[in-house]
Amino acid sequence: MPMEQPQAIDVIASGIHDAKNSMFDALARVGVAVQAIHSGNAAAALPALAEIETAVSASAQRLSKLLSAYRLLRHENPVSMMPVDVQGLLEDVVIRLHENDADGIALRTECRFPGIWVCDRELVADCLINALQNALRHARSAVRLSAEEADGQLVLTVADDGPGVPDELPAHADGTHAGVGLFIARRIAHLHERHGRHGTLELGNGGPLGGAVFRLALP
Amino acid sequence: MLEADVLASLFEEQAQQTPGRRIPLDPYKELRYLVIDDQDAARQTLKICIQSMGGFSVDQAQTFNEAANRIARHMPDVILCDYMLGSGRTGQQLLEDLRRSDRLPDTVAFLMVTAERSYEQVVSAVELAPDDYIIKPFSPEILRTRMDRVIRKKIFFRNFHGHKRGGNFDMALAELDALDTAEDGKPYRFDILRARAETLLRADRFDAALECYDAIIAIHPFPWALAGQARALRRLNRYDEASSAIDSVIASAPNYFDAYDLKADICCDLGEFEEAQQILQKVAERTPRNWRRKRNLSVVAKHNGDFATAKRLIEEVIANDLVGGFPIRDRIEQVRTAMASGDRAQAEKFFRELTPEEREALQPDEKLNIECLEATMEGGAAGEKRFERIRAELGRVDLPVDTSLDAIGAALTFSDRQLADRLAEKLLTGHDARRAFHTLLEIYRGHDMEEHFRKLQRNIAARRLGKH
């Protein structure tokens, strides 16, 4: 269901809170780096700079997610429905993902639906990239992205072999600070509507790889 | 620009034998690219991007008009165009102007590049969409993947594009049937359906087109499909249904301005020029550099007797529309407006300034049209002599509506009531009857022949009812 407005504002507020903390974190390390350079030991500044980079990049990512969340809230019907080649969508997502995260985890894609689905290409891609980033963070060695048609819906699944989501997370994921990405994903799912049926997002455990499973179903 | 078959032979082997896999870089070296962006840095970035995927010949354009000029001189194979082109112009407008004036073949790949997320709302609504769009920032890798896909699709549809461009609609439709059952056609099923609907509309097969659009709307009520449905309904004289289809487009995509144009067209069909003018005026304020719209608005204003507006707009169009316009037709319209408003000096100026070379280059119907106007303006023996030279021709050929109206005016001026009535009857029994009615009445009224015109109209009605 669409989230009530006050709850959504809380999600955005907690996101800003996190971004702010990352920035202060970075600022503190800037002090360390400056001191090191002043004392003639520039090499000692390097680790601090690396940490600064990580912190700034994390907060930039968080802010851009918040911006998406804000946009999704602001517009009444911001989805742009168009015919999307599902195979191509999965390819795009994997390419965009590899631009940011390239670690040792094996990412497999499996497209069991070779045709066209009507959906918002960019929003669905954002959603999947976010889910894949989470999966890659928690996976031990494997992540799988798949697409298939089930019960008249396009089902996009991201599964990993990590420890899975904590039992209590799905229940209050909407309101907690960890939930900005999830909030966006739920909102995107809901905005996809066809003949009165809305898209859904489920987060669960088990799945083909034994870890967390993110399942986006679009009517 | 490479011929479709050359393009295919460059890409096809890889494209067909290794579906889903990469096209090697070499063929990209053979293509001509045009990068359009008003920002220098952005153009450079795109150029580097293309070069990194093997591209070599990369042309650049900074403005809307410069882009149109380059395309006219050297047709590229691939166009990468930024959505925002400065001075209130957009890449979407460029694409539409080029496609509508038949200056951009379907074989050329047009990719829109944009930092505006809101462009998605545009691209998902419009009838003339680019082959793909990419949201900035993007990597060369994404550009490459998208370009691979667009080129594969161009190759897949190349025979269809060839037939369609040659006006062989039956063959184009037969090709679509063949593609629909082709093994590698699966990802293109929807494109095939859309292409079929558009081709049927172009081929004036409105019932079949309507059926096709209905099938698309059953999948999803895309604004462009509703607009197509409205176009087909309009041409089938089902105006009420057309009107309500277009209203639903406006409700679901209020920024899809073409829908308002179509709505205004329907108003004109019904002879409701005042409403048409109101609709167009409102949209034109929001799209001040859309000359096609201002051209329509000028014509509608003229019908409403609002000559000041008509005159101002057609002048503005002539001065500015260097891409989508037909300069001579706009000038003919300018003369028409001048004559309708009694501005003889302006009309004389046009005829004086028309050079022999320009007269030589006129299309047959343009030539006839100019002769009609010139004869009417001259009047007297000189005018009659001029009219005499084209009289037989006017009775023989099929004329566009505006030319017919001007011919009727000339015929009545020189007392050839028989020719005037024959042409008027043709208009009143044709598709554009209601649109032409108002102007016809004015023309006959101008010659104190309103009663005669009413009689003509009654005869036609009686014949239609089979009482004659």
- Enumerate the spans of chain A where pLDDT stays under 50 for 5 or more consecutive residues: 170-177
Strand order of the largest sheet of chain B: 2-1-3-4-5
What would the principal axes of the Cα set say about the shape of chain A?
globular
SSE run of chain A: HHEHEEHEEHHEEEE
**Would you identify the regions of chain B where 5 or more consecutive residues have pLDDT less than 50?**
none
Average residue-wise pLDDT of chain A: 84
The major pleated sheet of chain A works out as: 5 strands, mixed
Question: What does this molecule look like?
Answer:
With 219 residues, chain A is α+β, with helices and mostly antiparallel strands. Helices cover 52% and strands 22% of the residues of chain A. Chain A has a five-stranded mixed sheet. In chain A, a hairpin with a 2-residue loop joins strand 6 (193-194) and strand 7. The radius of gyration of chain A is 19 Å and the shape is globular. The two termini of chain A are 15 Å apart. In chain B, helix 17 (307-320) runs antiparallel to helix 18 (327-340) and helix 23 (401-413) runs parallel beside helix 25 (433-446). Chain B has a five-stranded parallel sheet with strand order 2-1-3-4-5, sandwiched between helices. Helix content of chain B is 68%, strand content 5%. The A-B interface holds A 71, 78, 80-83, 85, 87-88, 91-92, 95-96, 99, 114-116, 118, 120-122, 194 and B 20, 117, 120-121, 123-125, 135, 139, 141-142, 145-146, 149, 186-187, 189-191, 219-220, 222.
Notable features of this structure?
heterodimer, A: 219 residues, alpha+beta, 5-stranded mixed beta sheet, two-stranded antiparallel sheet, 6 helices, globular, B: 468 residues, mainly alpha, 5-stranded parallel beta sheet, 5 strands, 5% strand
